[in-house]
Amino acid sequence: MDLLHKLRAIESRLAMFEDAAATPGLTVIEGVLGPCEVVVQGRPTLMFGSNNYLGLTKHPDVVDAARRALDDYGTGTTGSRTANGTFALHEALERDFAEWFGKRHAIIFSTGYQANLSLIGGLCGAGDVILIDSDSHASIYDATRQTASQVIGFRHNSADSLRRKLERLPRGERNRLVVVEGLYSIRGDVAPLLDIANICSANGAYLLVDEAHSLGTYGARGLGCAEDQGVLDRVDFIVGTFSKSLAGIGGVCVSDHPELRALHFLARAYVFTASGSPSNVASVAAAVRVIRQHPELRERLWMNIRALR
After folding, report:
1. What is the count of structural domains for the chain?
2. Which residue range forms the structural domain that includes residue 18?
3. Which ranges in 177-308 belong to alpha helices (H)?
4. How far apart (Å, rounded) are the C-alpha atoms in residues 116 and 135?
5. Predicted confidence (pLDDT) per residue in 46-90, tens digit
6. pTM of the full predicted structure?
């Protein structure tokens, strides 16, 4: 068996679809007609598989912000945040997120995947314990693998399973971090964050909530499931992504812990990656403004959800 054996196995499976109209997982979008309509194989097609939850990819304010940033700053930063890649736009967006969430600190990342890699990898190391939901996103699993921490899974959305796992750990000997998602993309269900926050408090654990799919869609201000369930002030670290409701690419972490700032120098996935392009950062900032100013976008989304159900 050589290095390419596993790739050949995948290729042989893909060969079964050669005569099909489209290869699963490789649909090519040839054009975008609107937030919910694209062109596939030359035909206008309704898009039900996108994360463009609020339809902001074509919003005029968002597009205009990206266009102006291209004119002002060019196409890319050509550097990491710790070198030449911190523009005024990046720091302004971090201030916007901190203010929106009512948190003291925010740090943005080039991708949502990188946000979890950087945060979990920067926080945890040998001797620490990370407890994760069994249905966690791949970025969470990959982040834990780089830490040398003990990783313990608990049953999906089971507060009792989490409690039992935490209570088995010796008190006070090791740091423990609980990582959950607000809204799970695999199942479409919501974490019982109040119960989880109570369990973390009772067992001396930090709590990280990944609001990738719930940012912009849940909560009175669109801050996600933690806001929706009234536990925003009890979550130590909130992670969000820009590639869903915010119609861009990137990630963010907000927290009241001042130590978050150390990730600028500690997180390898952050230090050794080019920063987000100016046009993308500007478009995300515009999307945040649109979401904050237009709660009716969220109301329309939920109206559509109820209609489809």
Report:
1. 2
2. 5-50
3. 193-202, 225-228, 263-266, 268-271, 278-293, 296-308
4. 15
5. 999 899 999 999 999 999 999 999 999 999 999 999 999 999 999
6. 0.94
